[in-house]
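Anyone able to model this chain together with 2-acetamido-2-deoxy-beta-D-glucopyranose?
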Amino acid sequence: MKTFIVWFLALMLNLVSSQTFHWGPCPTPMVQPNFDLNRYLGKWYEIEKLPASFEKGTCIEANYSLRPDKTFKVLNVQTYKGKVRSTEGTAVVQDTKEPAKLGVSFSYFTPYSPYWVLSTDYNSALVYSCTDVLRIFHVDFAWILARTRTLPPETVYHAKEVFSREKIDVSRMAPTDQSKCDGGI
Ligand SMILES: *[C@@H]1O[C@H](CO)[C@@H](O)[C@H](O)[C@H]1NC(C)=O
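re: yes, here you go
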């Protein structure tokens, strides 16, 4: 019965949200060594991502900045149905020994979701977020970000290789439309 409930839940989640889910617990990828959060701040454009219900728009970009209370402001902006929409969230380093493993929350009522920087040269970045559900299945998100609206195809190819090496399934990864964008944040 329990198996059935979990299976049913997984199916519903998948149907309703178009999120990516997989059986088993989250993979445990390596993250960027000596991650320098200060160099990571500022503006990023989304190049490709795994499907996410909260990111259906185009021209998706983010600006990370330091707040006086040492938390980080996350400002996400996207264009959806002809309107520019922004969402503000908060990121924190949960364990100073592992600065590349951030937590991000978009409201006071939701817990921090993982935001792991797997790899970055501060011009492009590979970000991963995975949540276990009872260790029976997991829902995950992955993003390729860059300081520019486009990246050379070989850089994207290499990024996907890195995800795959870490046992992250990026077969459903799709480009974000960054054409016909202007201004922004
Ligand atoms: C990012 O946000 C910070 C703080 O709000 C702001 O000072 C900065 O100009 C923004 N950067 C860009 C590139 O928009």
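Residues 42-43, 63, 65, 185 surround 2-acetamido-2-deoxy-beta-D-glucopyranose (CB under 6 Å).
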